[in-house]
Structures are given as structure tokens and as C-alpha cells.
Design goal:
This protein is α/β, with parallel strands linked by helices. It folds into 2 domains: 200 residues, Vaccinia Virus protein VP39 (Rossmann fold, 3-Layer(aba) Sandwich), CATH 3.40.50.150; 39 residues, no CATH class. It is built from 6 helices and 15 strands. Strands 1-2-15-14-3-4-6-5-13 form a 9-stranded mixed β-sheet, sandwiched between helices. The protein has a two-stranded antiparallel ribbon with strand order 7-12. β10 and β11 form a beta hairpin. The longest helix has 13 residues. It starts with 11 loop residues before the first strand and ends in an 8-residue tail after the last helix. The site of S-adenosylmethionine has 21 residues, from α1 and β15.
């Protein structure tokens, strides 16, 4: 008689966030989980860092776990890999740009690179995919950027266009360019700031739903998911980062950029 292989044991869990240590290409098929959304930042395969190797086949494995995915990456990475996303059944809905306060890369023959992309992908019928665009108060503020302002004494404005009544509540759709300071002296060399991740999570995952990050790094996505009232599942291949994630989440650490 043959017995089914045991499901991988969590590395750490608090009931809301569960972290697994290992290669996502082995862990996710063994778990057979489904999530509301993948929110992830894979190795782009663009640096000499030991972990920065593109795991062949990962978009297909992610597609088996969710119908919606935010994926960070560079334009170079997405141009080189878009066939793998499409072969896995992913269709792109939109892209956002993270504008950083400082840049990476020191090539003197290029513009200083101060941004990254996050692309939203979905599978199947768009109407069946949860999407809730954040609306923020006020107008575009070129200094505060994501911090829209609205005078507190201003009442909602109501009016009529043709036969349609409307109420302008002062809220505006969040912009596709998001300015957030990079994380300095964080747990991981490519750590994403929690304030950048929060709107992506609330866009793609309903309250109480589950976010999956198969390349967890410092645990920033898991932390952001927990802060926004979602459950989270993370996978990380490097045990030192698993340890850092476990202590970050055990402390309830907030990610406050330097
Ligand atoms: C770009 S980093 C993620 C950084 C993360 N978003 C953060 O904010 O800290 C990618 C991570 O994926 C991990 N990784 C690489 N290959 C993996 C694999 N096959 N399975 C799981 N994790 C992997 C690396 O160790 C690295 O920590």
C-alpha cells in the first residue's frame, strides 16, 4: 500500500499568517491551496545576488493557486517573460509604477532608475475577479503625492449631468503612479514598503480573504495582508529570511520607512 506524501509543515504560523520554508515549486503543489490573490515580487534574474534566479515555471504554479495576481518586476523582466505568463493563462489588466525616493543601479550611461513596475494579472472572466480600486481623498498633490488632501470643512458636492444625479464625495481613484520611500536598512535588499502593498492587497483580495506570496523575502506582503485584515500564506526558500519573517511577524512589526 502506498501512502500520500505528508503536506509540508509550516515554518511559522499565528493562525492568520502561515509561512513555509522551501522552493515554491515544491511547496505549493504539495499544499494544493487556493488563495484570493497572489501578491508577489519574484527574483527578476537581473543581479548577481545568490537568490536572484528566475524559478522556471513559477507563473504556472501560481496560476493553479489563484485567479488574480499582482507581480512586481522590471520592464526588462516582463518583456522577456511575458510569454510564460500568457502560457499559464494570465491576462494583464493594468500596471502601476512605484516611484522611489532613491534609485538602484549605478550605470552612468543610463537614467538613474527610481521606479519599479507591478503588473496585475488575472485568469478567466474579469467580472468574477475581485477588484476594488482604492479611492483617496482630495486632488493630486505633487508634493504629498499619495497623500491627497481635502479641506475638512468642505461638504460633499451634488449635481446633475444630463438626467444623471451625482454626489462628489471628494474621493478620487488612486493613481497608477504611487510614490513611497524605499525601505532603508530593512530585513531584505529588495524589501517593499508596506504602504505600497496595502492598496494592491485591498484591490485584489476581499476583506477576510487570503493573500499568497510565494517569494516572501522579508515578509512585507504577509505583514501588509495581516494589517489589512486578510489571511496570508508565504513561501520563502532562504531559511535566514524565514527566520527574519517569523520574528518580524511575532513582534507585530510595522514597516516604517527610514
Ligand atoms: C525579490 S525577493 C522578495 C522581496 C520581498 N518582496 C520583500 O519585500 O522583502 C525574492 C525572494 O524569493 C526567494 N526565492 C527565490 N527563489 C525561490 C523559490 N524557488 N521558492 C521560494 N522562494 C524563492 C528569495 O530568497 C528572495 O527572498
Amino acid at each position: 500500500m502506498t501512502t500520500a506524501p505528508a503536506a509540508p509543515a509550516p515554518y511559522w504560523s499565528d493562525g492568520q499568517v502561515t509561512l513555509y520554508h522551501g522552493d515554491m515549486r515544491e511547496i505549493l503543489p504539495a499544499l494544493g491551496i487556493t488563495a484570493d490573490a497572489v501578491v508577489t515580487d519574484p527574483p527578476f534574474g537581473e543581479t548577481a545576488l545568490a537568490w536572484d534566479r528566475w524559478p522556471d515555471g513559477w507563473p504556472t504554479i501560481a496560476a493553479a493557486a489563484a485567479r488574480s495576481m499582482w507581480c512586481f518586476g522590471s520592464m526588462r523582466m516582463f518583456l522577456a517573460r511575458h510569454g510564460e505568463f500568457e502560457a499559464a493563462g494570465w491576462r494583464m489588466s493594468q500596471d502601476i509604477v512605484w516611484e522611489k525616493h532613491n534609485g538602484s543601479g549605478f550605470a552612468a550611461d543610463r537614467f538613474k532608475r527610481v521606479h519599479e513596475h507591478a503588473l496585475h494579472w488575472y485568469r478567466g472572466d474579469w467580472s468574477g475577479v475581485h477588484h476594488n480600486t482604492p479611492r483617496i481623498p482630495g486632488e493630486y498633490d505633487p508634493k504629498g503625492r499619495t497623500r491627497g488632501r481635502r479641506r475638512p470643512d468642505r461638504a460633499d458636492h451634488a449635481g446633475q449631468i444630463a438626467a444623471i444625479d451625482y454626489v462628489d464625495d471628494g474621493l478620487r481613484l488612486a493613481r497608477s503612479v504611487q510614490y513611497h520611500r524605499s525601505v532603508r536598512r530593512g530585513l531584505h535588499p529588495t524589501e517593499k514598503p508596506v504602504p505600497l502593498l496595502l492598496p494592491l492587497i485591498t484591490y485584489a483580495c476581499p476583506p477576510g480573504g487570503t493573500v499568497l506570496d510565494p517569494f516572501a523575502g522579508s515578509g512585507s506582503t504577509l505583514d501588509a495582508a495581516r494589517q489589512s485584515g486578510r489571511r496570508a500564506i508565504g513561501v520563502e526558500a532562504n531559511e535566514a529570511y524565514c527566520e527574519a519573517i517569523a520574528s518580524r511577524l511575532a513582534q507585530g512589526a510595522l514597516d516604517i520607512p527610514a
